[in-house]
Design brief:
The structure is a single chain. By secondary structure, this protein is α+β, with helices and mostly antiparallel strands. The protein is built from three helices and eleven strands. It has a single domain, classed as Sandwich (Jelly Rolls), CATH 2.60.120.620. A seven-stranded antiparallel beta sheet has the order 1-9-6-11-4-3-2, covered by helices on one side. Strand 7 and strand 8 form a beta hairpin. Helix 1 packs across helix 3. The radius of gyration is 16 Å and the shape is globular.
């Protein structure tokens, strides 16, 4: 993991794409784990925060599974991201406090329309990460992540290919997930600041 390179790209551009963030073998292991999760461990993803959270399939139609450090397979990824968190704090003095993440499954036809992951001053989510777990994915399969600039221009279209990681500032880049033609798996997470009150970390899930 080239933490210095990641830090430099974030400082210069606010986002980066890392084609082989983890080994193909490890990505395939996470892919198999996600595919074999029973249906009851998945939930429809919501939009909004706190009491405004709601299921809105007009905005997004994926399903998610929150990662738990008590589950060995899930903790392996969370532990690796904690190494990244520590490194970014050392390189960029970002004050990243913790990390939360979920598996996401976009079934054929699913999407997530244009959105921000955080609004300035209204969330403690600072940095978004997306790790893709899809072997043998081609342009014809769709499902691209599109990242937009401040004027609405397309900065990047990222195919969700196996082992690729996208990292970007959560409150700066509008992005969307295009419709895919087959099941698409990823791990999406957020590094956060400590905005806790009475030991309750904001925003709660």
């Amino acid at each position: 993991m080239d933490i210095s390179g990641i830090a430099d790209a974030l400082a210069d551009h606010g986002y980066l794409i890392v084609p082989q963030f983890i080994s193909q073998q490890k990505a395939l292991e996470f892919y198999a784990y996600a595919k074999n999760l029973p249906d009851q461990q998945w939930q429809l993803a919501s939009v909004g925060r706190r009491e405004q959270q709601t299921i809105n399939t007009n905005v997004r139609s994926d399903r998610i599974h929150w990662l738990d450090s008590d589950v060995a397979e899930e903790n392996e990824f969370l532990a690796a991201m904690n190494v990244l968190r520590t490194g970014l704090n050392r390189e960029l003095f970002m004050g990243l406090f913790d990390y939360e993440a979920h598996l996401a499954n976009y079934q054929p036809g699913a999407y997530y329309k244009k959105h921000l992951d955080a609004f300035k001053g209204r969330s403690n989510r600072i940095l978004t990460t997306v790790l893709y777990l899809n072997p043998e994915w081609s342009k014809a399969d769709g499902g691209e992540l599109v990242i937009y600039g401040e004027r609405g221009e397309v900065l990047q279209e990222v195919l969700p290919t196996l082992g690729t990681m996208v990292i970007f500032l959560s409150d700066r880049f509008v992005h969307e997930v295009k419709v895919g033609m087959k099941d698409r798996y990823s791990i999406t997470g957020w590094f956060r600041l400590n905005a806790s009150v009475s030991g309750i970390v904001d925003p709660p899930r």
